[in-house]
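Re: beginner question about structure tokens

> Can someone show what the tokenized structure looks like for a real chain? I only ever see the sequence side.

Sure, here's an example I had lying around. Input first:
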Amino acid sequence: MTASSLSYTMLKKHIFLFVFLLSRVNSEQDHVHTTQYTKDNFSTEIQKKNHFIMFYAPWCGHCQRLEPTWEQLAEMSNQEDNIKIAKVDCTTDNSLCTEHDVTGYPTLKFFKAGEVKGTKFRGSRDLPSLTSFLSDQLGTIFGSKDTVPPPPEPVNGLVELTEDTFDKHVSSGYHFVKFYAPWCGHCQKLAPTWEELANSLSNSNYVSISKVDCIQHRSICRQFEIKGYPTLLWIEDGKKVDKYTGQRTHEDLKAYVTKMLGKENDQANVKTDSPDSATHAVLSLTGESFEHGIANGISFVKFFAPWCGHCKRLAPIWKDLGKKFLTNDNVKIVKVDCTLDVSKELCNEQEVDGFPTLYLYRDGLKVSEYNGARNLDDLYEFVMNYVQPHDEL
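And the corresponding structure tokens:
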């Protein structure tokens, strides 16, 4: 090989290496949204604006599982002026983590601008719970800035549902519903296919294809316990029957609709025996519906917050309690989400100062607060004492 050809070969290798490294840097910059803080800049930066900080260790499995959600949260915060999502590596800044009482990974803390003491997040680490927590801390709905890209316009049979229209629309018949967030990449990829599905079934008298923006209409998504985006649910007569987990092609989605419509008789039996039936044994009320909802009979009400750990532990027991009174028209087992804007004033009026708070009402009037053990037997006995009061003198 001549000297000139050797030089040319070496030059090609260097150009290739340069292009490869440049593409790696650009790729990493495209995907990194979360700010990394160290002991050198942490104290200065958190004085400037509100912060939500993840204290983590790179080897920690829980931290690795949280990372995609944390990135989504950071992406959402790009639309916000008053908060930054950041993280601190406790393996390289151990003294900083010790200073903030980090004893396990990941530890998530909200720091109000100008304050050095953070508020620890204790809820489940899914996106709805994290955004709900931030909304409470900020006093505004996190992720709802006007700069968020608007959802696609409804076309040819695709129904855009809101908090005002959802319950009535799905109360009867068959519905295939997409729960989404406008900033979610997977949702954006699915959008044209979902519109195509709605268009292809627009003349059907049997099923409705619709969508719900979970950023604008959080209460619906909380009601159906949406944990990620997009979530596709099959709903019959107002009740969730199935969650779609297959491929998101038009053919696969349409085949699923055909299958679910063909299982009408079988699904009726599934709904009766399914654990999901317990969910609907609990009446979900808000500040707007509360007074009417508890006006008659006995109502046992759980006031809660979705991020509250004690509330989460009580949730399955509360469903079982509702199921026990499913056939008793005089007893309602109720829950009220105090983090919803439409319910915050109600919770203040009812003197809810901690979560969960359990009050029993008779014909709209508060009768008693429950402070006993939160197991099914004790809760059931408490209600029955008011259903069948003792007549002894």
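Each token stands for a local structural state, so reading them left to right follows the chain. The first helix runs from residue 3 to 31.
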